[in-house]
Amino acid sequence: MLKFKHRMNLVVGILLIALTTGFGQTMSGELIHLPPKSAVEGSSIEISAIYTGNLNEVTEAKLMYRLAGQMGYLEIPMNIGDLKIVGSIPSEIVGSPGVEYLMILLLSDGGMVAYPNNEDPLNNPVFLPVAKPTGEKSEMISETEREYSQNIIILTPEGGAVIPFGEEILIAVSLFNLDNVDPNLVNVFFDNRDVSAYATIGKDVVTYTPTQLNVGEHTVFIEASNIYGVKLSTISWKFRIQSAAQKMFDMKLIGYLNTAYRLDQIHILNTDTTQNQKYTINTNQLRRMDGSTEADFKWAKVKGVINISNLERDDNQPQNRYSLKIRNNYLRYTWGDETPMLNRLGLWGKRVRGHSVDLRFKWVNLEYVTGELTRPLTGLASFDTTQFEWSRTGYTYSRKLTGVRPSFGSGRTFQFGTFYVHSRDDVESVKLHPQWLKDGYLNRLGEYGLPINDPATSYSLEQIVLYGDTTDVFSRFSGANPQDNLVLGTDMKLALDNHRLSITMSGAVSLFNSNIRSGPYSRAELDTFSLFGDTLLNDTISIGDIDFAFSQLDDMLDKPGLRFLLSSDNQFDPSGPMADYFILNQSIRMPYDYVKFGNGFIMQSFPSLGLQFNAKLNYFRNFIDIDWKHIGREYTAFGSPLIGFDYAGWTISDKVRLLRNMLFLNLGYENITKNVGSINTFADPQTLVNSYSLGFTFNPGTGLPTLSTSIKSYKRDNNIDTLNIDTTIVDGVVNLMITDPRELNQTLTSTLSLSYEFALASVKNMISANIMSSSRNDLRLGREGELQSAKLTGLNLRTEWKIPLITNVALRLNNSQLLNESSLDYQKTSYTTFDVWAGYKMYKNKLQLRSGYRQLQLNKIKYVDAILVDYDQSQNNIDFRVQYNFPNVTKGATVLKNKLVAQFEARNYKSKIENYNYNDRMVHVRYELSF
Amino acid sequence: MHLFIKKLVLLSLVAFVFGQNNVALITKVRGEIFHKAHDSDEYASAVKSGTQLKNKDWIKTGADGYIAIFFLDDKSQLKIKQDTEIQILGSEERGKINKTISLDYGQVKAKVEKQKGEFKIVTPTSVASVKGTEFWMISEDGVDQIIGIQGVVEVENRFSGGVVQVTTNQTANSTPDGGLDTEETEGADIPDDPDDDTDDDAGNTNLHQLRIKLQNSSNEERFIIIEYSE
Questions:
Q1: Which of A185, A360, A544, B66 has its CA 20 to 30 A from that of A200?
Q2: Are A783 and A798 in contact (CB under 8 A)?
Q3: Where in chain A is the domain with CATH 2.60.40.1220?
């Protein structure tokens, strides 16, 4: 109920007439008023104003007010003071969404002054928003929800959204949180055009479906008013339509760029005995740049990598590396340098520069690699003036490789594959006389003292004429022969029980030709292949007692899938299509030895066979790895240089997790036979290598020490127990030559390391101690004794201080001994190293300084000219390092981080016995940028 | 006319309107979708985005259906996958909508931010009460799986009355025999969200997460999350 008198519509009507007539008169002053910023529901509002005219002329002052949205006004008189005019809107009328008011002054001369000072203050009053009172608990109204309660909510699309071209778009906002919305007063603007007529507008929700949207940015603006015509809220946001092309190239970019410069001034041992100095200074400079950029598109990742350095030279294998890689779910393609992993027996871990393709379609896959393993190097040519012969050495042939591996199965639980890896040296890639075709040939001969300028001489590649004597000139390659290698194999992988059990196995056969310079055999030459012991030219290959007619071979190959090996006359000819896949001539290593097979040596009769089996089991906290390999004596795989040859055996390991992974127990066993291709273990003994290892690591957690220890026994035995005694008689004198072919030794190695983190007065420390001991003993009867021993002890203390300072102090003792004093090869060496460094961070870790000092004392005892000599050497190093991290730079969505690192190191070497004292210096500067 | 009568008429009008108020809006539609209005006995097909949903409306998706809806008061989002049927119950109360989703069967994903009203998902077996969170609810043959993505979901088994809280990377299994337990979520069990970018262009992408939990001496937990695809 209202407390004040009020007149409603009648007052409004009278004032309307009065104001419209009153505004035509001249006003002697004006009302100055600063409206309140807001009001609180249920609280009265004080309204005050200052009249700039003569207050004595004011006969009446009225404050007219209404709840926002109402038609009629209520009025109360205002108090006319000495300085200002004051009135109050009663609390009962103050409510949401706000109140409207105006002030009117009636003057003595019949005029009127109003505020707001506009043409129609009754229809354009002052609007004062009204908020709910603070402190009053309103259920579920939080700060965020207050924001929501006053606002239009964007439903779709989100502000800043990126939408593909052609996708149907719905623009929708919720008006739920606005009170008394008048749908007729809701306006929708799209790209600054009024589309309200085409929108679906309700009091709770507004939707609009634009048509034929162009690629690019679009803007939405919506305003809503209530049933009283009061504007409640507006909202505006943007979104973007992206074309298919734009979407294809929409990407995230990450990468890095590092450049480094290194200058080393190092003293090296002088091999030129004419010089007095033992060590001469050698200056090396290294400049390198490493960069990588990866663009992550929706459909693929593209990565470029480059590593270049000044070590790259034409007379050496490439030191630079580059590659461009494209990856998505189905394809992995690399152009440039790659390390493909087809199969451990065929291609594994060898850098190939070329193309690498890996297609994966879950159940069918194809891997293909082609490229160069080594690039051609010319080497050096030298001339023998007595034999008149050029010989080329130090060269390398270009070696190309092609590998294919089709497979079936995704590889997650099952995969079966076959592989073909062919690698061949290009015979034409190294010329016997590459640089002698020009004038340089004569100059080269001149370097060897030949009278090249004497008109009585003449020189050519084939002959040299010296004063009427003609001598033929020979040329030959004196280095490596060009080779050919083919590996064919198959592999299988099986994983069961959620990968707790996995089995892999591979088998392969290799063909190796140690010299393809003469090219492949012809069919006739194969008929009398000396390696088979076949001397008859009868269109038959004879291997021991087995005769195999060529016609039979032709028929065998005349089948789909093998016909490509036949010549056009449907005959097998090693110099025909077969030569594209492998060069067959007298230099091949036979993959089958029929003699050994006939004598019952089955595995030895296949010297080019490689077999591998591996099983992994993860049960009951044990991780067991079982590996078996048999690699034949002649097994060769250019693409897998680490596979080795001529050995077989088992390697078994078990990692046990105990005490909630605080304790790891490691067990290992190895049984390998080397020289497994031997059939005469006395003349060509096999060596059996047995090793056992046991160790554990205990990491109980934060605040407790970590302990790890291990012990390993490694034994070599060639199972020969007797000495060789050769008796010869020369001029009636019996000479005995005794040799000891026995090998029986054992190496025992043990390690212990302990580390502990602790705090002293809030200063963090980490102390660690390491002990390693190793000894190899000769166990041969009559030759028992120590062959070699080594012992290493180390202690390290790292401290992080309360200020940003880290220090590290380390002491290491290293003693090793070779044989004992009775042997002229006896040598005993002791190293003592003391190392200390400190690092300090400043300017919020932007600047990092580090400095260190190391002292190394070496004492060596060995025989020199049968006299035991004691050497002492010392080395003192100091180093400084500065790192500055520049402030990050933000460009759009990309953050650039960069830092500069500079390092200087000086080493001083001293030796009393050898009488030298010199200093080495190294400077290293590096700049790193990442984004 | 007295102001009082004016107000009475206005209030009546408001009451009438609020009884059939819109509570949600369909913003994305894919495949077969059916809608049954609160006052209808039959499902209608050809549902389009922009359709407004009222209290007690039903939604059903076909074998290839997918639909996303927003609630009007706080933009809570509900994504409904294929072979799913739900009824939307929204009661308005003092400027907010208390939302109850009755899930007969199927898979839904809820994402609730800046929550205003209650948000519950009710199945024949369980009740999942949400407070500012993101999670999946899968109901099949009476067996419910609630997979927490973010925040906390309180799950109650309607038969046993048991209650558990499901947090990030946890899955609750609720069965008609009253069984209710939680376990660590297996990455492969999280349904694919059709709106995720990784699924749009990569065809058969399977994105997995490996989460390694670390705990310090103060029992504070952190996770190392390794994402990989195969």
A1: B66
A2: no
A3: 145-247
Contacts of A174 in chain B (CB under 8 A): 25, 70, 72-73, 75
- Looking up tokens 């019952």 gives A600
Report d(CA A753, CA A666) in Å as an integer.
15
> Which of A144, A145, A155 lies nearest to residue B70, judging by beta carbons?
A155
Confidence check: pLDDT of A303 > 80: yes
Residues of A in contact with B117 (CB under 8 A): 140
A chain contacts of residue B22, beta-carbon cutoff 8 Å: 202, 204-205
Provide the strand spans (E) within A199-250.
200-201, 205-208, 216-225, 231-242
3-state secondary structure of A599: coil
User: Is the CATH code 1.20.5.440 the one for domain A145-247?
Assistant: no
User: Nearest 10 degrees: CA dihedral of A316, A321, A325, A331?
Assistant: 40
pLDDT in tens, A645-699: 999 999 999 999 999 889 999 999 999 999 999 888 878 889 999 999 999 999 9
Q: Is residue B3 in some structural domain?
A: no
Question: Which residue, among B52, B54, B98, B199, would best test binding to A if mutated, counting the most A CBs under 10 Å from its CB?
Answer: B52
Query: Is the domain defined by A9-131 classed in CATH 2.60.370.10?
Result: no
d(CA A127, CA A39): 11
ipTM of the complex: 0.78
Question: Which range of residues forms the domain containing residue B125?
Answer: 22-192
A781 vs B71: CA distance, rounded Å: 91
Burial class (CB in 10 A: 0-12, 13-18, 19+), B14: exposed
Q: Is A9 on the interface with B (CB under 8 A)?
A: no
pLDDT tens per residue across all 230 residues of chain B = 444 444 444 444 444 444 467 899 999 999 999 999 988 888 888 788 999 999 999 999 999 999 999 999 888 999 999 999 999 998 887 678 889 999 988 999 998 876 777 888 999 888 888 766 788 888 888 889 988 887 778 888 888 888 888 877 888 889 888 888 888 887 767 887 877 644 334 344 455 667 677 766 556 667 677 766 55
The radius of gyration of chain A from alpha carbons, rounded to an integer in Å, stands at 47
Q: Which residue of A has its CA nearest to B77?
A: A155
pLDDT in tens, A783-831: 888 889 999 999 999 999 988 999 999 999 999 999 888 888 899 999 9
Cβ <8 Å between B94 and A139: yes
- CATH classification of the domain holding B99: 2.60.120.1440
Q: CA–CA separation, A809 vs A358, rounded Å?
A: 50
C-beta separation of A73 from A13 below 8 A:
no
Are B50 and A209 inside 8 Å of each other by CB? yes
- Per DSSP, the three-state class of B50 is coil
Residue A149 has a CB neighbour count (10 Å cut-off) of: 20
Q: Does A170 touch chain B (CB under 8 A)?
A: yes
pLDDT of residue A914: 63
CA of B22 to nearest chain A CA: how many angstroms apart?
7
Taking the mean position of all CA atoms in its chain, how far away is CA A173? 45
